[in-house]
Amino acid sequence: MIGPLRLVLAASLLGLPLAGCSDLPAGSLPPARVPSGAMQPLPAMKSFAAASPEPARRSNRDMARDFLDLSFELESGRSLPVMTRFEGPIRVRLTGDVPKGMAGELENVLGRMRSEAKLDIGRTDSADAQVTIQAVSGDEIRRFLPQAACFVVPNITSLKEYPSARRKGLTDWAQLTTREHMAIFVPADVAPQEMRDCLHEELAQSLGPLNDLYRLPDSVFNDDNIHTVLTGFDMLMLRVTYAPELHSGMTRGEVAAVLPGILRRINPAGEAKAYAGLPSTPRDWIDAVQEALGPGAAAGARQRAGQKVLQIAEREGWRDHRLAFSLYVYGRLVQGSDPTSARAAFETAREICARSPETRIHGAFSSAQLAAHALTRGDGQRALDYLQGQPELALQYQNAALLSSLLMLRAEALDQLNRPQEAATVRLDSLGWARYGFGPDYAVREKLGEIAALSPQTVTRAAQPVTP
After folding, report:
1. Whole-angstrom Cα distance, residue 154 to residue 72?
2. The pLDDT value given to residue 297
């Protein structure tokens, strides 16, 4: 029985956002028009200031249901007999091949957990730590779980213990009655953002909720990977987990009986909110999403899975962010063969996401796709219109990969409008964020070239520096 894990998405939200967007026939894209200055040393990596997450906006009744489903079910759908948590102070140890920046990212999220979730949690070097975070290579993680970017399991402290413990059933979450020791395995050889995202999600799941729910619009406990750092809702769920009214070993019914009082006490604003009661997400939709976006499937199989994702969403009658995500997945997978349908899907997804403050960040992904399509048509002004306000959203939600992509798109649009100095300034700004979001220099240059190749110009742009 494996524990919660963060999935590798081969066609992730920004992994292949722009290749294949063109209305041009296959193979007719111009060579990447990367400015010669881009081969100069890249600017220093940028990083985010302290997070300022928005509070959870939904009703306490909705969040009580969410808490029960997050705490008493696994991602597989398997039910858990009792709630578990740490009983006492929580100390976290960092081991392994720790990359530069990981310790700082860990301190940041621990500080947030102390201030926002009111947890007694901090760093230690002791082998008796309640939570051990081991930095290992991505290959080592995939050797055990091929679809995992990172994962957490109980009752061990290192990856070498995992095979034996798994055979003995020690890593089975359903057998726990309390939490004593957890091990988190985070890749040391990925972009800083991917490392940070793994730290946030897996540390939170080592402490509290074990499930992921696609119905949540405002949480990292959702495999759509829209949110990359712990949200106000996530911190509220952790605070509820460690409320004094609860303890390990309580059944779902026992927790349900005291949840309304806990939420009324710590989240009084949620009492006045109307109950939304979004329907549960069917398993066939989840399976189709994983086939469409996960590793291993051929292009044709992905496209068929993307069509199925949208068909199931329509069958379910959804009008929430899951319909928008379904449209986005479908658009991503058909844009090479049917760009008109793809643009229509992205437009509709964007409109759905604009209806609620909770889903504005979801809409930024569709806005990026629409801006890319506009660039392939040489319509720089339309691209700028789609990008209006989107980099600011990505900055607010601390998604550097999205932010840098949006800025690169904006720079390309400005170039199309013959505003080269503005374009150079924006492009330079994008590179510092790209180093955080995409990692090594070659990945940054590849993304820059990919976006430059969108414009329908058949000659190489005149050499220009990346500095304004």
Report:
1. 16
2. 85
d(CA 24, CA 16): 17
Tell me which residue has tokens 């437009």. 347
Determine the Cα–Cα distance for residues 200 and 288; give it in Å rounded to an integer.
26
Two tokens, residue 267:
């989240």
Give ∠ CA 241-245-251 in degrees, rounded to 5: 70
Q: 99: which 2 tokens? A: 């990359």
* Helix extents (H) in 30-183: 60-71, 102-116, 138-144, 162-167
Alpha-carbon distance of 446 to 412, in angstroms, equals 15
Asked whether 433 and 47 are in contact (CB, 8 A), the reply is no
Q: What one-character-per-residue DSSP string does 223-289 give?
A: TT----S--HHHHHHHHHHT-TT--TT--HHHHHHHHHHHHHHH-GGGGGSPP--PPPPPHHHHHHH
| Helices then strands, each counted (H, E), the chain | 17, 6
Residues in the chain, pLDDT under 70: 1-3, 5-39, 457-468
What is the distance between the alpha carbons of residues 394 and 391, in angstroms, rounded to a whole number?
5
276 in Cβ contact with 59 (< 8 Å): yes
Which pTM value belongs to this model?
0.91
Closest CA to 329 of 353, 347, 346: 346
CA-CA distance, 182 to 3, in Å (whole number)?
10
